[in-house]
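Request: When convenient, would you put together a sequence paired with its structure tokens?
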Amino acid sequence: MFIGKSHELSRRAFMRRTSQLAVAGAASSYALGLAGMGEAAAFSSAGGYKALVCVFLYGGNDHANTVIPYDATNYGRYQAIRGTPGGGGIALPRASLAGTVLNPAGGQTLTDDMTLALAPTMPKMAQRFGQGRMAPLLNVGPLIVPLTKAQYDSNSNASYPRPPKLFSHNDQQSTWQSSQPEGSTTGWGGRMGDLAQSGNTNAMFTAINASGNAVFLSGENAVPYQLAGSGAVTMKSLTNRVYGASDLGDTVRQLTTTHHGHVLQADYATTTARSVTYAGFVNDALATANLSTDFGSGNSLASQLNLVARLIAARGSLGVKRQVFLVGMGGFDHHDGLIGSHEALLGKVDSAMDAFYRATVEMGVSEQVTTFTASDFGRTLASNGDGSDHGWGSHHFVMGGAVNGGRFYGRAPEISVEGNDQVGRGRLLPTVSVDEYSATLAKWFGVSGSEMPSIAPNIGRFASPDLGFMKNAV
């Protein structure tokens, strides 16, 4: 059971704040938004700051070349299935893994006495594992109910329901991000944002998307604030001369922010007006958020995480105590050309996530910020030539000072294409559900047990509402 504390996210407080803001009206000033409500401010002071940062790997990350068996027996099985390195296969050379072997604390024993290593381009993540700051979550994926292979093979969706449209990019991205089929209008990050808004004096900055349009941060009431490049999205025509005209900005402002009788026009005008109003404020706050952490260059994921770090540094100016962020990187759909390209992408993930962790240490919030990965799906263990095809379960990483790192969570799958934890060609049948993943993060974030089904709608069907990879979960 989830045990509540005095600073839990409160549905009733959220609903009161929502109704109060509605009465205040869509045209309320920014100053009124900062003034906030006394109850919300009191909650913020009691709970302290916390943030969740989702790193989404678009395209379906090849988990089998991300977390790789290193012991001789299981590596031999992996190589036999994936093909000899350098001989047209897609197995990574065993010798290249020596620097990224993961030795769990306390002598943890995995399936078939397996020893695992990270891809050779992920030495920083391996180091954070050794420091107890990173934990791999093994074989996680969308599930409606726990499934055995026999139940899956029965094709009885009435008795043993499975997520719809498995192995499809857009469907499974939506399912991962929302725990609901494609077409869902809310994601589990946004639903946490719904609850967190009551603890922020300025709800606008509860859910922040630095990656692009996605359902993950959309809530019933929480609307993701979208960023691009190095800061807030601005309308240049409002501030710059266009074709030599200095008065065009006033015309554009009037056209885009004037309220109209039609409800859709009014909503558009309100949204645009808020965007224009807040952009300057956000960029001013970012300008004062100076960090010495080097995020490098030529890495889009690192640039997004750099922006998130600066927003966290400016949290006092933004008036927030709880935030959920989304960043992402594409290019993981490796039906071909896996070797070389995949390691390069993982190297960027390694560098970006490590720089972000170092930034949280610099800011003194490493215990209060948790970063975690997600992706469309895993991929087949079997090779299709020089790549792999769409799968289901996958391995993911959780990193931060509040993570019970240095050990594995979930169950390591057999290295096989015919085992009881796969459904064909080495497609993993998840043994950990996304609902369990999200519920464990949500509990740490401050979500109460009574609210948990709103975040993870299938959680009541699983035995592990807390997987244990977070410290001091409330």
In short: The radius of gyration is 23 Å. Confidence is low (pLDDT under 50) at residues 1-8, 10-46. The longest strand covers residues 50-57. Residues 11-226+322-461 form a domain with the Alkaline Phosphatase, subunit A fold (CATH 3.40.720).
